[in-house]
Amino acid sequence: MDKRIHKALFMKLLFAVIVVAAVSSCGYQMVREKGISGGDITAVYIAVFKNSTYEPHASLYVTDAFSKELLSTNLFTINKESSDAYLQGNIKKIVTSPTSLSGGGLVIEKWISVDLELALYRKNGTFMRRWLLSDQETYRVDNIAAEDYNKREALQRLSGRLARRFSAVMLVDY
After folding, report:
1. Beta-strand (E) ranges in the chain?
2. What pLDDT, in 10s, does the model give residues 54-64?
3. How far apart are CA 161 and CA 111, in angstroms?
4. How many Å separate Cα 20 from the centre of its chain?
5. d(Cα 69, Cα 165) in Å, to the nearest integer?
6. Facing residues of 120 across strands?
7. Quick one: which of 29, 68, 101, 160 has the fewest CB in 10 Å?
8. Which pTM was predicted?
9. Considering the domain boundaries, does residue 20 fall inside one?
10. Cβ pair 51, 89 in contact under 8 A
11. How many domains is the chain built from?
């Protein structure tokens, strides 16, 4: 009986050692440095995105979403005077179109689509990377008094999704 207890304890200990060895050798490691590009870029300047469309205030919503998203990663400081890099954005196209009609033939929903071009440069002006992103969001228009509000809200949600996608892609790329 004593041998069985020792053998069971030995097997449990052996199993624990194997699990610890397997987990520690998986290749995962915690992020030790802030920033991207090997820690070279820890401060990013984000200028207000250029708006090449006729949609008023779109650049403010998109720029705000990107600033908040990059700040929330906790890898960067944003708009610091001595930034390591700067991000330029250009809203290339915004399209709105009806998506659904009521039984009487009136538009009750529209979608808004945004095409965005982003470029990351080092502080000395050296080009690093370019991204092209697009997304769309549906919003209600059956209440004419709330249509503009719903459109702005849809643009803000869409901007937040674009910013999250950009953040994920940028962190994977670097």
Report:
1. 43-46, 50-51, 77-78, 85-101, 107-122, 127-140
2. 999 999 999 99
3. 15
4. 34
5. 10
6. 87, 129
7. 29
8. 0.75
9. no
10. no
11. 1
